[in-house]
Specification:
The protein is of the alpha/beta class. The protein contains five helices and nine strands. The strands form two sheets. The protein has a seven-stranded mixed β-sheet with strand order 3-2-1-4-5-9-8. Strands 6-7 form a two-stranded antiparallel sheet. Strand 6 (129-136) and strand 7 form a beta hairpin.
């Protein structure tokens, strides 16, 4: 695989929208749930996740095929140069869709292999959903989505970056979830769409061998 975008693609003014900030909050929150000492991020993009989590006292390493992004390791994620269980948490945010589907599953299997406690992934969910919030006095905000009534899934057209997306034809949520859950040694804890950015869907997994 070759890199798909230049480093300038990740300029703060054009890349880090408020919706991405909301998604990043979930990235950090989900990783912190495992109280990790070591974290591996696949596809670091602008490097903001690493900067944030490092400030919270964790050791974060990154891996990417693009050396211009200055990852700690340059290489392909489907064959990582790490030992089994080398990192407490392994994560990939809006990254797996940038490779063909079968390769994305191979990468996920590698993520499971090198993780000790958990794996956190976010992927694009193409099904239209409109975020809503109702503030209930003395209770607080109640967030929910209104989903599109569309039944037939749209065909996905490669745009130079995404090879596939959840809820495009052939890539239903049920198929993606099933394929990820079939990977040996891991259990899906939860999946959800970010309230403020429903295009981003999270999958949080726990290594079956990990005990609190």
């Amino acid at each position: 695989m070759k890199k798909q975008v230049e480093k300038d693609h990740y300029k703060f003014s054009s890349y880090m929208s408020k919706q991405r900030w909301a998604s990043m909050w979930n990235q950090v929150s989900e990783v912190l749930e495992y109280s990790p000492g070591t974290v591996l991020e696949i596809g670091p993009g602008p490097g903001i996740f690493k900067a944030l989590v490092t400030q919270l006292g964790m050791e974060v390493k990154t891996l990417d095929i693009d050396s211009e992004l200055q990852p700690d390791y340059v290489g392909s994620a489907d064959c990582m140069p790490f030992c089994d269980g080398e990192f407490d948490v392994v994560c990939a945010f809006q990254m797996l869709e940038h490779v063909p589907y079968e390769m994305s599953l191979a990468i996920f299997r590698e993520m499971v292999r090198v993780a000790k406690k958990g794996i956190v992934v976010s992927l694009p969910d193409a099904k239209a959903a409109w975020p809503c919030v109702i503030h209930i006095p003395k209770v607080g905000p109640f967030n929910f989505h209104i989903h599109s009534p569309r039944v037939r899934l749209k065909e996905h057209v490669f745009d130079g970056e995404h090879h596939w997306e959840i809820n495009k034809a052939g890539y239903s949520l049920s198929r993606i979830r099933s394929d990820l859950e079939k990977v040996s040694g891991v259990t899906l804890i939860r999946t959800y769409r970010v309230n403020e950015n429903p295009y981003h869907r999270f999958f949080v997994f726990r290594k079956s061998s990990f005990k609190d």
